Every structure is written in C-alpha cells, then in structure tokens.
C-alpha cells in the first residue's frame, strides 16, 4: 500500500487526521500540565523522565495517565 499525500485524501480522511492531531495535542498538554502541578510524591518515577516520555505519541501520555500518577 502506497503512502497517501494530503492531496490524495478524501475530505473525511483529512478531517480524521486533523481531529486526531487536535486530540493528541490536547491530551499531551493536559498530561504535561498535570505533571507540572502534581507533587513528586504523587508521581511514579522521576518527573524529569516523564517529560520526554510524553513526546512518544500516543504511548507517553497514555502511559502517564494509566501508570504514572498515584491517587
């Protein structure tokens, strides 16, 4: 299967890509803000390591939400 360029996509496919990007940016921003405000005692692992982990999309933010925060 050949890689599609933006001009080869249907309007529906373009909308899906744009909405997915917006959701990904929003979740990452939310996680980074939560990490900044949360005390270190309530974070599993060093806070300094979670910041670069957030750049691994979409695994980093999901991992932080699932396992990185203590309740």
UniProtKB/TrEMBL annotation:
It is found in: Cell membrane. Keywords: Cell membrane, Membrane, Transmembrane, Transmembrane helix. The keyword Nucleotide-binding does not apply. It is a multi-pass membrane protein. Pfam families: PLDc_N (PF13396). The keyword Amino-acid biosynthesis does not apply. Residues 27-69 form the Cardiolipin synthase N-terminal domain. InterPro entries: CLS_N. It comes from the Bacteria. Its main location: membrane. Transmembrane segments: none annotated. This is Phospholipase_D-nuclease N-terminal. It comes from Nocardioides alpinus.
């Amino acid at each position: 299967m050949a890689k599609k360029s933006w001009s080869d996509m249907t309007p529906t496919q373009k909308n899906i890509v744009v909405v997915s990007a917006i959701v990904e940016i929003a979740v990452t921003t939310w996680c980074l803000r939560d990490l900044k405000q949360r005390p270190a005692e309530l974070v599993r692992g060093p806070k300094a390591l979670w910041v670069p982990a957030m750049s691994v999309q979409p695994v980093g933010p999901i991992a932080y939400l699932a396992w990185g925060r203590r309740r």
